[in-house]
Design goal:
two-stranded antiparallel ribbon; 52% helix
Amino acid sequence: MELCESLLLLLTVCISTLALISAWSRTARRRQLPPGPAPLPVLGNLLELKAHDILKSFKKLRDQYGPVFTVHLGPRQVVVLYGYEAVKEALVDHAEEFSGRGHLATVDDFVQGFGIAFANGERWRQLRRFTLGTLRNFGMGKRSIEERIQEEAHFLVEEFRKTNGSAFDPTFFLSRSVSNVICSIVFGRRFDYQDKDFLTLLAKINENFVGMSAASGQLYEMFSWIMKFLPGSHQQLFRNLKDICDFVAERVKVNAASLDHNDPRDFIDCFLIQMEKESQNPSSEFHLKTMVMTVLNLFIAGTETVSSTLRWGFLILMKYPEVQAKVFQEIDDVIGKNRVPAVENRALMPYTEAVIHEIQRFSDVIPMNLPHALTKTMQFRGYTLPKGTNIFPLLTSVLRDPGSFSDPEKFNPGHFLDKDGHFKKNEAFMPFSTGKRICAGAGLARMELFIFLTSLLQNFTLRSPVDPKDLDLTPPVRGFANIPPTYQLCALPH
C-alpha cells in the first residue's frame, strides 16, 4: 500500500514537473517572439480577434503592441507586420528569409503546396521561374498578350453598349472579360459570354473570395483542425475548389490529346512540353499535380483580383464624376475617339495613371496579403523568429500608411501626382505585395487595368442611378479580400 502511494506521489511530481517545464518553455519562446496578447489554451486570441472584422482587430493590437506583434489564431502562432516600414524591412531588406509561403487553411488541404502561389522551396523556385518566363515570352511571333486584352476590351465595350444606357450590375460583365484574358493564355481560348458552364465557374470563384473573407472563413483559419469535420458554409468553399479544379484538369486532358510540340498554343502546352523534357530528371517539379494547381492558381487569381479592382474603380468614378471627367479628357487628348488604347499611351497619361494607382491603393483588394513563412531562423527587430514562423505582412497597413500617404482614408489621385501634375511613384504602393513573392501576374494585371478602364471611358460616361453622394464605398465583407459593394451603373455613350 505504501509502495503504491509512493509511486502515485512520484508520478504526480513527474507530471507536474513536465507541465511546469512545458509551460516555462512556451513562455520562454514567447519572450523571444514579438509581444502580443496572452493566448488562451486552444482558443488562442479569439477574444481579441473579431472574426467579422479581423483587420480592425489587428489595427487595435498594433496600437497596443507596435508594428510587429504576435497573435494566436486558435493554437496557430502568427507574427503580424503592420505598416510600410515593417513590411518593407521584412519583404525587401530580408527578402530571402521571408520568402516562404505560410499556411492559408481555406486552401491548404486542397492545393497541398503544389501550385505556384502555395509552393515552397525548390518546387516554388522552379515553378516561378517557368511561369514568369512563359508569361513574358508568350505570344512572341503570334498575338501578344496586349492584343488579347485589347480584343477582350472590345467585346466588353460591345456588351456595355447593348445595355442602351439602362442600369445594370457590372459584376459578371467584368469577371467574364478579365477571366477570358487569362483563359486565352492558359487554355488557349476565350469563352462566350453566355456560356453557362463558364458563368457557373465565375460565380464559384466569386463565392469563394466572399466566403474566405466572411466571419466563417476567418474562423476556419483559426480552427480548421476541427471545422473541417463540421458542416457549414465553409464546406462549400472546398466543393467550389473541386469543381474549378475538375474544369482545369479536363482542359489539360484536351490539350494533351492534341499537343503539337512545335506549336504550343498556351501555358498548358508549354507546361506539358516542359514535363516531357524533364521526365528523366528525378528532382523535377514538372508533373501533372503541379501543373493543374499552378493553372488553378493563375485562373482564380487572374479572374477575381483584377475584376474586383475594376468594380471598385467604376464605383469610385461614379462617386467622383469630376475625376472621371478628367480621365476622359486625357483619353480624348492622347488617344482620341477612334484609336485602340495601348500600353504605350500610359507614359503620356499621368492623371489616368495616378487614378488607376489610387483605385488600387484605395480598394485594397487583398488587404491581408497571402501569408509568408520564415525560411530560416533569424533576428528581426531584436526578436528571434524561428524557421517556419508564419508571417502576416498586412498590405492594407502599407497602402493606408499615414506616413506614406497624406490622407490615406480618402480617395485622392494626388497621392501619385507631383505639384506639376506629373506622375510620381510611391514605394508604399504594394497592391501586388513585394519582394520575392510579388504577384507573378502583376505586369499582366497592370496592362488589363489600363486597357479595360480607358477603353470603357473612351466610349461611355459611367453614371449611377442614385445620387453620387449616396454611393457607399464601405466594403460589405472585409477579411482575406475587400469585397466591392453590389451596385448598378448606367453606361451612357459619349
